[in-house]
Amino acid sequence: MDRFEMLTRFVETARLGSFSAAAALLGLPKSSISQAVTKLEKQLGTRLFNRSTRSVSLTSDGETFLPQSIALLSEWDALQSQFISSPDNVSGELRIDMPSRFATNILLPMLGEFISAYPKITLRVSSVDRKVDLIKEGFDCVIRVGALTDSNLIARRLLTYPIYNCVSPDYASKWGIPQSLSDLGNHKLIDYSHSLSHKAPEFEYMKDGRRHAIEMQSLLSVNSTQAYFAACARGLGIAQIPSVGVESDLKEGKLIRVLPEFEAESMPVNLLYPSRRQMPLRLKVFSEWLVEKLGQKSPVK
User: Residues 259, 260, 265, CA angle at the centre, nearest 5°?
Assistant: First the structure.
């Protein structure tokens, strides 16, 4: 067993928190996973995991060693990719995270084209509507909507979503349609908050190039994009929704666009990946394909 095999088994065990889960993912006996980790620990002279009968967790040394292991495996994988001459030979697992509505409305409908072009790449798509730790959780790339905060990641702009203020016909029949900002005092806002905090919900809009916000009443707060859209469709309040996936609902009258002159700042959509000297070929071909499909823009930091 070489060192890269040991590192792979260590990384998957750390990511999944279980020898059994790592064995199932890698298609190996559980004993080969635990033996690899034990051998690695002996070589390093330290314990990487705290073990119990049900799960394993990283020690402080394991926490330090994990990102270094992931980086080393990524570099080795990228170096091997340099010698692949045909797209038909591009292979491996590609782990991607993205918002649930982006996955449902944008990526999945067109993903068959990529799979046909690169049948040896295995895709694992996460859409959990939370900000994942790209490095620690072992993702190759993430798609994020909104302002960027990860300065240590490389970003490629995919597109920009306009934001629409929307209500359902049921909501309009019960509460009416706001005609001005002053009318918002008589309306309810669906609050979207990752943390479900107690911060007062705000209706955001742009005017003269500046962001403005008006506090509003809200009877519902959600932390999922799917739930946010569903709540609006069910008449539970005004939602400020990215345009993706709602155009057809607006055309069919399932949603009504309100106060179009007072809408929030458009939201950028970026593909983010670690800053590496070498990029794995499977990540390179996926990023180029996605940029081409959605409208290529220059990379940004």
Answer: 110
Q: What is the structure's pLDDT at 297?
A: 39
Q: Pairing relation of β-strands 153-161 and 299-300? A: antiparallel
Is there a contact between 262 and 167 (Cβ–Cβ < 8 Å)? no
Residue with tokens 């993706």: 244
Count of structural domains, the chain: 3
Which two three-digit tokens encode residue 107?
């990526």
Rounded Cα distance between 11 and 158, Å, is: 30
pLDDT tens digits, 53-106: 777 899 999 988 888 888 787 777 766 666 555 556 788 889 999 988 889 888
**Pair 141, 181 in one domain:** no
* Contact predicate 11/66, CB 8 Å: yes
Contact (CB, 8 A) for 65 and 40: no
Residue 260 belongs to domain spanning: 163-264
